[in-house]
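in:
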């Protein structure tokens, strides 16, 4: 599939641990038809990312932080075809 436009956006979400906030954010991203979403201050941990991937239904690459700070994620639109060349966390 050849795309003529790639929609990329970045957000400081100030935490996505709250289920309702996360679902609203994921829904908003879907309605905007974003391809790649870069998130800062996600407050994500290894244990939360697998759940988030199921909810998002797409790939997520994360650099983990603590409960109160840090944590970045790159979310890929479900079914987005891409090739990851390298990853450094």
């Amino acid at each position: 599939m050849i795309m003529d436009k790639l929609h990329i956006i970045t957000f400081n979400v100030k935490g996505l641990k709250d289920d309702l906030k996360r679902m609203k954010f994921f829904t908003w991203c879907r309605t905007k038809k974003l391809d790649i979403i870069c998130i800062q201050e996600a407050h994500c941990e290894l244990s939360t990312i697998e759940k988030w991937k199921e909810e998002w239904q797409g790939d997520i690459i994360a650099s983990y932080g603590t409960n109160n700070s840090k944590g970045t994620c790159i979310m890929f639109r479900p079914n987005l075809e891409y090739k990851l060349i390298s990853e450094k966390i």
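note: The chain has a mean pLDDT of 89.
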